[in-house]
Structures are given as structure tokens and as C-alpha cells.
Amino acid sequence: MEKKPAGVSVVSWVLIIYWGISLILAILMAANAHKIAQMQRELYGFSNSLMQYVVVMNFLAPVVNLTLGILMLKAVNWSRHVFLIFNAVILIIALILMPQKIVTIITMIIYLIFLYFLYNRSASAFFTAKNSTSPAQ
Q: pTM of the predicted model, to two decimals?
């Protein structure tokens, strides 16, 4: 079994901590969802249908990324592929919809750094070694 690369551990723990806090905040803010939705409509000019998307993503993104962080620590290979696709879609949507483009661009740079650590040679060896069970000869 390959040793877990430090980059994979760091990315996984950052995902777990950041998205864990985000999930707790989303749950706490759910009590004031109406007021928060009104503030976001005023700040960003979001329509009601777009606000429904924002509310769903406030819960879905933390749950998915928290789960992916845990699975990456356990060397589940498909978790890094889901991370790549799920967060790429979220970032593209954010780039289109959000007025603060600079925040989204900075987030994209961090995302690309995470992808480097999840897809470099040592990370690929770590994820594929866990999944390959070749019989002894």
C-alpha cells in the first residue's frame, strides 16, 4: 500500500474542516432563511428561482464536499473525480452568476492547487494502489 501523500491529507482535512463549518453555518442560518434570502436578493439582485438554487447549494455543497474529504482520506479513487466535476460545475455557475468575479477567480486558483495535489504522481499512485488488488504470484 502506498503511503498517503501529504498533499492528499492536507486537501482532505481542509475540505472536512471548511465544509464542516459551512454545513453548521447553513443549518444555523436556516432558521433565518427568509431574511437571508431577502438580503441576498437585495445585494445580488437574485430572482426567487435563483434563490431556491442558492438555498439548495448552501446545503448540498457542504454535504458533498465533506463526504468527499472523508472518502479521500480513505483513498477512494472516485472521490477525487467527483470532487473535480462537482466543484468545476459550481465554479462555472458562480462565475456566471456572482457579481464578485474576483472571489470566484481566487476560489478557482485554490481549486486548481487542490487538483494538483489530488492528481500528481504520488497521489495517483496512492489512490490506485488502494484499488488494485493483484493476486500474489
A: 0.81
